[in-house]
Amino acid sequence: MKLSVEGVQKHGALAVLALVTLVGLLAFPGFRTVDNAGTLLVNAAPLGLIALGMTFVILTGGIDLSVGSVFVLGGVVAAWASQYGFVAALVVPLLVGAAVGLVNGVLVARTNMAPFIVTLATLLGARGLMRAVSTEGSTTYLVESQPFKTLGNGDLLGVKWPVWIAAVLFVAGSVVLNRTGFGQAVYAVGGNTDAARLMGVPVAATQIRVYALSGLLAGFAGALNAARLGSGVTVLGIGTELDAIAAVVIGGTLLTGGAGALSGTIAGVLLLGVIQNLINQVGDVPTAYQQVVSGAFLAVVVVAQTSLTRLRSVAPV
Amino acid sequence: GKAEETGGTGTDNAAAAQQTASAGPGGGTCTLQQYGGQKIDLKTAKVGFSQSEKEANPFRTAETKSIQDEAAKLGITNLTVTNADSKFNKQIADVEQMIDQGVQLLVVAPLNSDGWDPVFKKAAAKKIPIITIDRKINAKHCTDFLTFIGSDFYEQGKRAARSMAKALDNKGTVAILLGAPGNNVTTQRTAGFKDEIAKIAPNIKIDFEQTGNFSREEGQKVAEQLLQSKPGISGVYAENDEMALGAVTALKGAGRKAGDVKIVSIDGTRGAVQGIVDGWIYGVVESNPRFGPLAFQTATKFFAGETVNENIIISDREYDQATAKDGLAVAY
Amino acid sequence: MLEAIDVSKTFPGVRALDSVSLSVRPGEVHALVGENGAGKSTLIKVLTGVYRPDAGELRLAGERVRFATPQEAQRAGISTIYQEVNLVPLMSVARNLFLGREPRRRGLIDTVTMNRVAAETLRGYGITGDVRRPLGQLALGAQQMVALARAVMVDARVVIMDEPTSSLEPREVETLFGVIDDLRGKGIGIVYVSHRLDELYRICDHVTVLRDGRRVHSGPMQELPRLKLVALMIGRDVETVRSEGVTGFSEESQVADSTPVLKATGLRSRHKLHGVDVAVRPGEVVGLGGLLGAGRTETVRAIAGALPLDEGTVEVAGRPVRGSTGAAVKAGIAALPEDRKAEGIVPGLSVRENIALAVLPRMSRAGIVSEKRIDEIVTRFMERLRIKAAGPDQPVGELSGGNQQKVLLARLLATSPKVLLLDEPTRGIDVGAKAEVQSLVDELAGQGLGVVLVSSDAEELVEGADRVVVLRDGTVVAELTGDAVTADGLLGAIAAAAEKEVEK
Amino acid sequence: MTAATVEKPKRLTVHWGRWLPAYGVYVALAALVLVNAVITDNFLAWENLRIQLVQVAPVVIVALGMAVVIGTEGVDLSVGAVMALAAAVVPIYLGYGAVPAVAMALLGGVVVGLVNGGLIAGVGLQPIVATLALLVAGRGIALVISDGKLKEIRNADLVAFGNGELLGLPYSVWLAGALTVLVALLVRKTVFGRQLVAVGGNRPAAQLAGLPVRRVLIGVYVLSAVLASIAGVLAVARIQSSDASQVGQLYELSAITAVVVGGTPLTGGKVRVLGTVAGALLMQLVVATLIKHDLRSSIAEMVQAVIIVAAVYAARERGTR
Ligand SMILES: Nc1ncnc2c1ncn2[C@@H]1O[C@H](COP(=O)(O)OP(=O)(O)OP(=O)(O)O)[C@@H](O)[C@H]1O
Ligand SMILES: Nc1ncnc2c1ncn2[C@@H]1O[C@H](COP(=O)(O)OP(=O)(O)OP(=O)(O)O)[C@@H](O)[C@H]1O
Ligand SMILES: [Mg+2]
Ligand SMILES: [Mg+2]
After folding, report:
1. Which architecture characterizes domain A2-314 according to CATH?
2. How far apart are CA A50 and CA B72, in angstroms?
3. Which of B134, C148, D149, D233 is the most buried (most CB within 10 A)?
């Protein structure tokens, strides 16, 4: 069988996921339950959406550190807007997220500034904005719209809505990446920006779009999360962006851009969730060790993947 | 009201255990029957404890340890402890997962008061009693959760204000070192302090409010800036002891003398109480983290069919020049 | 068809184009020639919307146009193959070919059709194999053919080719000329940039000569004698050029019958090399011949320690060299990479830093570099190789391709090597510089260096080399020595090897 | 420069496109000082300036290492965790005296640097991923070592190191100054410095030119980690307590911001040491200004965002079109 570089990378993450899941299934009865699977998936959904957008950004060779802040901001404005009904609760966070993403995109595409630093600035900016609309974070808006709550907490065929939504968006994202001109542009910009420009790819427009998409999805993830929690929590904790980046990288997408796939990102997101779940299954692991385990795990997966890729590069075509 | 002795005996720090202050105004009551749960034996029960933040600062260390020690003392062998590492979504996932695993009693130190819908939905279906400690959860009593055990943060702020008013003789300018933004504790300790100052000492002006994020280093940095831009400041209200200790280091660095600037803070850690003894801190309002005995006692009562109050507010000590020396023995 | 009128373009510190005009008619192959740094690539980038001209205007079919992006130029029917291969290495061959104009089915890209058509199209250019593999896995020449196919696939009105043959094999050059003839027949205008004069005279109708950013001549190709063309390019009179000659290689070099300075034996690397032996004696120039993908580059890289070997040894002056680039450099091996942009220059660093790069430890005491000693070598080599730059502190990325190549050569020579490995040393270099480089190679060999020369230019190879080792699929298939070192001999050897392959 | 090499001196006059990236940060810094001199009470007081220097010192030290790493087209996200690690190690060995304790902390830095460098240069991981793993794991290890508890530091030598003074300036500031000079010399004058920018400018080319690429990369990450350890020790000595969960929090972002604002591009191949110091000072003064004027954190954060964008916009490399 012929495998492309991408192929091995994404299957690498899936293979590790399968392995870890298998170990979990065998070792922990508590891991084997349907309830546990549901909990795992629904909690992974917001990170999944953020990582989905992040994958697009990273494929163009960029990075988006602002997603964590936008996620929180999206949740807060969604809860606030829910007093005006379901549609407002859904649309406002999308608009706000997309707006922040647009700022990122325009700055990256038009000013030749490094995405790392641009989005680091908007990380601060979006957090400031979130605090500004919540009286320095002290006001927690409660979700007023029942349909909106259902979007976060209801289920279809036993699977929660956020999980369905994430699944559908991942499939859609895959189609966009592989089967549309925009998707090709994303890979081309990340693979070789200069060449892409010379080949007539609208580089700036592509960059603007991926950051806007990333912001939009982070805002949406925030909205879904608020719908589920029933309020616009302001203290969701920092570091969501690093989790998303880790998930994408574990999924085999090159941080330098140009190669990767969404199936890998799903595997990465689930892998982070499974690890966390397994640590909890063990029961009494001190926090400090949890971090050591997560860090070491990240290193091991990525090292394994890099080695796989290298093996691949000397194999015959 | 007068405190009623409820603390467990036999711990190395019996005198330090929490005491209930009141049943909490306006709170309802709840029984096992009303809650709809099942009678269980705590010893063999599966118990889950969800901690919100890393056990690095003395408060969290003492809190988790207290729960674990008490469980061990009661012979509870099946205790699961999770730590959300200050990530709210992780805490929700942690608790949901513990419910999936079949815990029969949940003790939660919530990171945030709102946002617990998914947990309640899941817990209600299985009728699992939830005891929240140190921070309240905004939810329906006796349906969503059993009881809240903890301090009244607003009241803590008010007590700090009274202490400050006394220290400054009702006049002067005061700076607030705020806790982490968005945190309920920050919000209430700030509101209590400001309201009380406005009421009892209108001549005290609050001139500066910056966050020190509950951390010693940031507290120190902010205090250093403060001392340069407002050298005439007469008091500093730190919303936790760590920031107060940072402010002390800043004062020392700026060549100030002990007692120059009156510092009042909340928590009651040993370091801060020592600070009073050394003369750098004026007063400390305690926030007692030793929830273990009270929490399990409440659970025992509940499963025995007795009535449990919605709010069990503990009485917090206060340390000042007079009580600090002795207080060192009970400070955590 | 396409016209540029009085176009000027200034870069920080350099006036790259000064009131240059160019006019391409339908069905005409228009040669654009000039020394390295004359402004050819810049003019092309102005024509195709990469750069905005500071002054002057562009006309397409008589109408004034302005391209803000390459995309707009492409939409207007200007198709370009840029000097450096500009494709996306990580994307598949087919996706590269179709990027921006993929076949659709119900709004989505039809990958099946795309791959099928790509395979068919590329077969016409001599590229077989799976079109779904990443483009980066193709040899440079094959990538160039993909770029060519891509440029020609659209309904272009003008096709611009900036040194398209620099990484092509003779066989592929023929393919290219076939394509050009086709295009000419269809009335498409072609701008053709090349330093290979033979090619120009073979296919071009018209010629425009640039020198130092100015147009110095424009007229029918055939009316301009070769010597006059060279004289125009380098700005000297015909007589001087005649007396100096055009090729830099002198007739005979004397090779001492001594022990080899370089001895590589049994080089093996999975899928790339299958036992290659090369030995070079002091003063000898050994050519490596073969078709595209024969393993010449890999051989050179293996000797230079840049390709991990499964088996085989490399010895310099009898001493074994451990397989790393550092050890190789220390042992006296200096390698000029095939891909100047990717593996040669450090574009952000100055000419000075680039030249001194490999010899820093030698130019230092206790880890502290001696600026004085660096200045000495930099001055020496900039003069000796006549490197054209605003000064030693200009970033190398701003130099023209040829001058970048010279900077690299200077870096190699600064290490006082015993063995020089030159992979396509004159690729993209103008006639003047080419002769300089060639005579330099001769001179260095004369001083007792061993030289390994890889060149796709058969002429250059046979003139420059004393002996030619012919490779195919990573093994040595023939060796030409003495009188057998001729272009015909070389082609014959390659052809014989190919036939053997077919028989098998 | 010799005449022979300059065949066509076509250089024009001073070009803003080159000047601004190189010196923009100093202009911004000067402007901010001027503004503060007018609007902020006591700003020009020596005590105040001293406090700013003291507060910025650890950031500067970490940023110096970060600048060097970024010069190789890398990034080191683990610096904050390394600071925590140093903070955790110090109290353990403080019983043997301040010097052995500090030595052990630095040794810890060397180990982390070797791991980072090994993962990047040896295994070939992308720097951001390798150091992300250590960001997570490093702080975890620090917490494990320190048993997750805050420890008070009472060792007189160490406290003196954190708060003592020489000629009116704290040791920490002298130390940051000395390290700046050393790193500047390292980058400009030494073989290692030249090699590291070449590695950042074009790694395959450096490799082919025979440069010891791995050694350079490992060296750079070790340097960064050791500098971060020094900053960690300094932080501990200054706040007189060791809290592995707090020390160094988000320092990686402050350091990267200082480096980039100072005009070093994230794409490598260039290191501006003095610019980095100026960048750190600029961000320090911005924060100080916002605190002194008691702005709410929401506003303060948005203002910081705008200033970072503006500073980096001015310092960016301009493309030619
Ligand atoms: N981006 C740039 N910035 C500054 N100077 C540049 C830039 N690009 C080209 N130049 C300068 O413009 C002049 C013309 O360069 P150009 O690449 O057009 O030459 P060329 O004729 O294509 O040479 P070659 O045959 O070597 O490819 C050179 O002096 C070069 O140094
Ligand atoms: N990763 C790889 N897997 C399989 N084959 C490869 C790989 N990399 C290179 N090759 C093949 O190895 C062969 C040798 O390539 P090499 O670049 O050495 O050829 P060359 O003779 O130098 O050609 P050129 O004229 O392009 O320089 C080619 O057929 C190339 O396609
Ligand atoms: Mg050119
Ligand atoms: Mg080759």
Report:
1. Orthogonal Bundle (1.10)
2. 42
3. D233
